[in-house]
């Protein structure tokens, strides 16, 4: 694991841990929802990503703390009744994101990427990037067994990073040519099928403008920037999902005077527009997905603040639901189900992994 990646991971973990014990209750207007806590086979550590293939099959990745400094990267599996350890990832892989195609084809990314082939995890070395070492932030499955990874190329300092994309073609990662986007990063990506995709992130601040959302679209084999709606203050996007050929959603946060608020954008197939979100300090959004019942959910939070929002078409805006009650790292809907998974660590205690589950 590179020093830059280790520092980034440690900073992210410590930022959340410093806030443990500071409880943040949902607003009085939150819609009630019951979350059920499930036992995890990890006594001390962290869970960073979760995804599901169905009600009886879900996976999570993270790490188990071994001693004061050593950790084991691992994957967990839900079989419909219990969470158990599925496998151990390569040493120092520090998985931060997960994509699952089947029981014999899973991908994790953090300090590099690794693929589960059905019996073992294999490191998959990222392609060289002239902009610097690539730091992966998001994975997305694509057609013909391809995989996308989005992140940033870091030449030496994070502040000088540039957006970066690579694609797994079945044998190797291939760097994707991008237009000159200046300094920034990509944090989320989704395939639209048939050679199309969307990627989101941030263009870093310059002396003349604040940090702002970065939106890219792949068409006809080329990635091009899309105009972003005007957002007050510094802003960025962390996740994106597609609901069809002409509907996608991206979420993140905006900050003014040091206070973060949720941010959600909607794409109609040609343009992006801002949507109305409730005011929630430290309410940055990290993930978004739709349940089988058609509910669009967005989740996130910063430190001990946990946030779950639902899109209300009748009100043309987002409303707050009861959150999972943990320091949320990731939330996932379940294909063909109204169930929702949330993983992270407890608000109190020292790195106590938590898994929450609800069916609406």
From TrEMBL:
Record-linked InterPro entries: Gal_Oxase/kelch_b-propeller
Keywords tagged on the record: Signal
Signal peptide start-end: 1-32
Highest taxon of source: Bacteria
Protein name in the entry: Uncharacterized protein
């Amino acid at each position: 694991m590179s020093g830059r990646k280790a520092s980034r991971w440690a900073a992210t973990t410590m930022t959340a841990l410093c806030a443990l014990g500071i409880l943040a209750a949902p607003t009085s207007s939150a819609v009630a929802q019951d979350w059920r806590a499930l036992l995890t086979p990890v006594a001390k550590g962290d869970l960073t990503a979760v995804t599901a293939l169905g009600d009886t099959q879900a996976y999570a990745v993270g790490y188990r703390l071994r001693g004061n400094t050593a950790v084991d990267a691992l994957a967990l599996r839900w079989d419909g009744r219990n969470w158990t350890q599925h496998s151990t990832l390569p040493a120092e892989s520090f998985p931060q994101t997960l994509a699952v195609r089947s029981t014999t084809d899973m991908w994790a990314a953090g300090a590099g990427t690794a693929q589960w082939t059905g019996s073992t995890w294999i490191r998959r070395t990222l392609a060289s990037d002239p902009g610097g070492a690539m730091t992966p932030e998001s994975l997305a499955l694509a057609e013909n067994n391809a995989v996308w990874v989005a992140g940033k190329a870091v030449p030496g300092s994070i502040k000088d990073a540039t957006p970066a994309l690579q694609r797994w073609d079945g044998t190797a990662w291939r760097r994707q040519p991008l237009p000159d986007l200046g300094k920034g990063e990509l944090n989320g990506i989704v395939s639209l099928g048939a050679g199309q995709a969307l990627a989101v992130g941030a263009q870093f601040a310059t002396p003349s403008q604040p940090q702002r959302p970065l939106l890219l679209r792949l068409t006809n084999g080329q990635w091009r920037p899309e105009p972003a709606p005007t957002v007050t203050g510094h802003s960025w996007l962390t996740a994106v999902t597609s609901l069809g050929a002409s509907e996608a959603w991206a979420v993140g946060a905006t900050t003014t005077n040091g206070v973060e608020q949720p941010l959600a954008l909607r794409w109609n197939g040609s343009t992006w527009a801002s949507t109305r979100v409730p005011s929630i300090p430290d309410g940055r959004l990290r993930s978004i997905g739709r349940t089988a019942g058609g509910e669009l959910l967005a989740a996130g939070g910063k430190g001990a603040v946990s946030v779950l929002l639902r899109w209300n078409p009748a009100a043309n805006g987002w409303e707050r639901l009861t959150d999972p009650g943990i320091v949320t790292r990731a939330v996932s809907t379940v294909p063909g189900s109204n169930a929702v998974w949330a993983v992270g660590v407890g608000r109190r205690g020292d790195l106590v992994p938590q898994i929450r589950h609800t069916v609406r």
